[in-house]
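Chapter review: from sequence to fold.
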Amino acid sequence: MAEFDKFNCLTYGCIKFWGVVSMARGRPSRATVYARLDAAIGELATRLGGLPSPKESETIWADIWHREAHHSTALEGNTLVLREVEALLEKGRAVGAKPLSEYMEVKGYGDAARWVYGQALEPDAWSDGQLIALNEVRRIHHLAMGPVWAVAPHPDASEQEAPGDFRRHDIRPFDGGMTPPPWPDVPAQITGWVDDVRTFGRRAVRAAETGADTGDTSDAVPELPLPEELARLHNAFERVHPFLDGNGRAGRLGLNLILVRLGYPPVIIFKQQWPAYLAAMARADTGDYGPLGELVARAMLDNLNRFIVPNIAGPARLVPLAALADEEFSLAALRQAAQRGRLNAVQGSDDVWRSSRKAIETYRRTRHTRRPRSE
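The token string follows.
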């Protein structure tokens, strides 16, 4: 079986790495977040059929990549608001009076994100059949940075440093002290990163096929929870910093390519999370992947509950209350209504309350109706 075909077993919920723990009050612990993610992904795969393709569910993916383009470029200083981003990506209209370069930044990122989601589920000639290819890394950067560099080229870029080409300049140390490698070392180090991702993918496939780690150390990698393994790979890419500019955008898009290929929802790092993201990356630079892993896991759960599950679950299908919460009904309000018997819901053996969109509509109509007293 080709390596890419083996990833399908991950899409259908073959990985099992943590047992489900009881729901805790207040902010859940990191272990609880990981367990909830494991359970939610398993439910997506076994009960809801896995991630839909962009062609099957255009609306779901459009919502995700609009927000991803907005927040990921905002992390780098872009000032377009979400309404302006949606008008640009959906209708091709430049609403507002921002600099042209800002519109081109968002357009490039939106085009790259759209390509990533399609490429992850329906790969074309840029893929070599494995979890990620070096050509795909360069393609992501070319799509993301090409439009903005066409109108506002990087002032230090040489002819050999066009979008998609590796840098030929050294990068000064970052505030936290991390220094990317000298530019002559970039091709070898980014190739090593691609090999590391593929090693992780092969190990995950073997674990999925056997239901557990085989103990084979031929592709040995650190034994970390999956979100922290993803955090390690994301941090390793940023430490190489293979391009002259746009490494953060290319790195987050590359992470999402890996995630969606493994059957997981993509992540969006919101602009409000920028300080926490930078702090987590700094911790990861020292080998502590926990904070970044937790941030990745929470972002995966957020996309799963906010966009994917509510749209692919039928109106009568039971889904976790977190996937039904909205501006009108918070998760706490729905849980309280379920506990009081006002919302038709069931609590599973994992302590997770589940209900349906149909039940939510009934609750919306009847929540102010006085219930008859029991005799």
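Two observations follow directly from the output. The beta strands are 319-320, 346-347, 353-355. The chain has two domains: 3-312, 319-366.
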